[in-house]
Amino acid sequence: MTEQRINIPISNLLLIVATGLLLVLLWQLRSLIVTLMIAVVLAASIVPVVNWAERYRIPRWVAAIATYLLLIATLIGFALLIGPTVIEQIDRLIRQLPIYVEILRALIESLAARLSNSPELVSQFFNTQALTTWVIRSTQQLLLRSYGITKGIVGSFFTLILAILLSGYMVADSRTLIKSLVRLFPQPWDERLQAQVEPVSERMGGYIRGRLLVSAILSLATTIGLSILGLGEFAFGLGAIAGVTNLIPFLGPILGTVPALIVAISKGGWLFLWVLILFVILQNVETYVLDPLLVGSSVGVHPLYQLLAVLGGVQVLGIIGALIVPPWFAGVSVLVENLYLKPKIRAERRDSLRKECPEGYAASQTIN
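RESULT FIELD:
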């Protein structure tokens, strides 16, 4: 019986080892990579303002510094203006949430008992206490996991400052940076990739700017609506929660609605129904008015793929992943569309024309 030997070329073996070492290195640098991803998203969001200022003969670095200073000053102003009220209301809401959940559990048990003449049978198949406990425990685990991942990656003040500084450098010296990167690719890919920088930046930045503006409008509308309905003691806090969670596509509006509904149902009366109607109206306004007007087709991908991007971002990076993965997914979709799908469609049309009308195809090639 002859022995079979497996011969692996040295080049393949070195490639496998190098790939493994590269993966280990990327894993060790995962925090820096996420910081760079955040910086790119910030730069793509701000670069149109800098480009606009540059048209008026303002030096690019001056425009970048002025834009960032204005942005930071605006955020600090809002934080000083409404920050204490929002923090105080959210803190009070967190402290009273167990009481509201207990009231909700009692209401569910009472409703279930009214719907059946046999409360024991209801308790057997519908254990409200166990269900409520499971929901609370699952929510806590999800929040703790997301908080732990997010804090470990971008939770520190230094990391956020680093992302802002990196994005500022990208905006101020974007042309030199892009040229130095595309030089790494052979021709004609260097020119093709350089031509895609602007559409990728437009789609990523347009998505972020649109979502921020939509979330700000919905946060203000939620605060005003809840104040009118009689939840003024938590209106700012619930409005801030709704605005922040609305940055997350698909899942965010649901997450932002739940706290307000829990507070409303614990208050009793018709308040729950009115709050539910308020959020339904706001979500329909967002879906059919604000998103088409302010976000538009900036994502450019099927909603199912957007949902998968959000879920994948949450699974890998926590809440911060749900915020930064969708714009990156939108940017990658531009590359796939312009570098693969459009050339593929043009090639298929040429092949179809050549088969159906060889003379016309030859004439078109002669003209070209």
